[in-house]
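U., I forgot to send this yesterday:
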Amino acid sequence: MDIQRQGVAKRKMVRRIVVGVSLLLVAGGVTYGVNHLQAALPSIESGTAYSDTVKRGPMLRQVHGIGSLVPEDILWVSAQIDGRIEKIYMQPGTPVPAGALLMDLSNPTLTGAMIGAEFDLKQAEAALADLEVTLQSNKVDKESAAAQVTSDYMQAKIKAERDKQLADQGLIASLDFKLSEAQARDLESRSRIEDKRMTILDRSAETQIAAQRVKIDQLRAMYELKKEQVQELHVHSSVAGTLQQLGNGAVGAPPLEVGQNVVAGAILAKVAQQTKLKAQIKITETEAKDIALGQPASIDTHNGVIPGKVVRIDPSAVNGSVLVDVALAGALPNGARPDLSVDGTVDIERLDDVLYVGRPTVGQPHSSATLFRIDEDGKTATRTTVKLGRASVNTIEIVEGLKAGDKVILSDMSAQDAHEKVRLN
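Result:
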């Protein structure tokens, strides 16, 4: 027969309670430890983090822009008169000597007007010759008549003097003398009238000839104008260079072709001088405010760097950029041609003694930014607020937050925005 042991159930109950309490204590300790355990630092590869050391000394402020080479002298050849393209002699890319014939136009109406103007001029010149002959003939007739009157006057004068002597001697009647004297006075008056008539005739002839010559000059000017317009149907380049395009080059505009009609003023060709090029670079309007005429610049053609200086600053901004012209002072490298893409750098000013560092991917000039400063152990980096000042292409001034010798990460750390400290592997 089984005998029940005393206190067994009680001991089991105590043991269960002790085990439960221990488990609760262990779970609470684990929970407390987990809640108070410091989060592990995020890690970044030091090889992928671009860094730089803060320095003190001179800093050259520069601004950078991209652009292209453009000719200093461009000739836009335009149509001087309406016409139809008959022949095109040169294509874009062809060297063009001065005076080279680019294309021929035709305008039958203008050609006919020139021929008509030429005939009108010749007719007027023939009319002048005929007028001169007619006036000369009239003058001869009038001179002959005047000479006859003068001769009659001289004879009458002599007769009157003779009759006066005879009358004084009583050889003829005094009445005969008076008649001779009256006839002489009459012929003298007629002679003076003929002299005046000859003077008026000369003036009249000069006036008629002058009027005809004015008409001839007018017709000659009209003929020369028509002739010049016809000559302008043969389109030439007045300068030597390279033919860059036919037509105005507008987007969507069809190329010029034989048989096409063009109107006066239409762009027919663009000729640029290859040996005289300048650079046009686009600078953001926030940086362009510090650019001034005469500042030194350098132009990288990707086949050599050419020194230059700023010669023009566009007064307006387009799409946030300002166009700056740089005159080139050095020799052009091989392959330099209009529309070649270039990089331009303009020297703004030299700062003698400033604290500066390489330009980070974040942070604008004259603003505050947060950078990760590498700690002394070189294994961690701490977020630091930095006040930035004036900027250059590759460097920026440090106003507050860092000192010379500090090393900071310049690459993009936006992925660590939630952390104040990172580990460098």
